[in-house]
Amino acid sequence: MAPPMSAGRFIGVLRAEGVTVVEVGDWRKHNRNHKGAWGPVHGVMVHHTVTSGSERTVRICRDGYAGLPGPLCHGVITKDGRVHLIGYGRANHAGLGDDDVLRAVIAEKALPLDNEANTDGNRHFYGFECENLGDGEDPWPEAQLDAVERVSAAICRHHGWTARSVIGHLEWQPGKVDPRGFRMASMRERIHARLK
């Protein structure tokens, strides 16, 4: 059981891993903590946004939209590889997911197929939204994939987790397809190599 790191420690571990960080507004205090607890944390969840344009994407993820208030993650990874920190604490990114998947993440074992949505993921995962249309054709520049790798490794390194603690939204919640355009297994291999 790991308590979330402080916002100051969070930005510090990202920078130590070589992440280019952009601080957006009052990100350290922008959260949904009034809706429930954040923590203990068990992993990192990666998403795509189904948006284009970095400025617009960051704004949507920070502010949310009708029916889903922001922040929609902790950091937005734009195509240029920058990580825009938009919130810290509970964020509307993971939603309900499979308790068997959470147990596998905690145990750092192979993930089972997600077949139910009965567990609050917003409480247990750091979340990163990646600027991408999610159509399988929009490219994922190497700078962006490198940033996904680095933020994930930074958080895993801090908590003493392995790459198995990093999952995609599609591995958590039935019906989700994100991130689409690269394989999470390949990303975990990259994270594993960085953590060596």
From TrEMBL:
- According to the UniProt entry, the coiled-coil residues are none
Looking at the record's lineage, which domain of life comes first? Bacteria
Q: Which Gene3D superfamilies does the entry mention? A: Peptidoglycan recognition protein-like
Give the GO biological process terms: peptidoglycan catabolic process
For this UniProt entry, the molecular function terms from Gene Ontology, in alphabetical order, are: N-acetylmuramoyl-L-alanine amidase activity
InterPro entries assigned: Amidase/PGRP_sf, Amidase_domain
* Domain N-acetylmuramoyl-L-alanine amidase, first and last residues per copy: 27-180
Pfam families the record matches: Amidase_2
Q: What name is this protein filed under?
A: Peptidoglycan-binding protein
Recorded source organism is Streptomyces poonensis
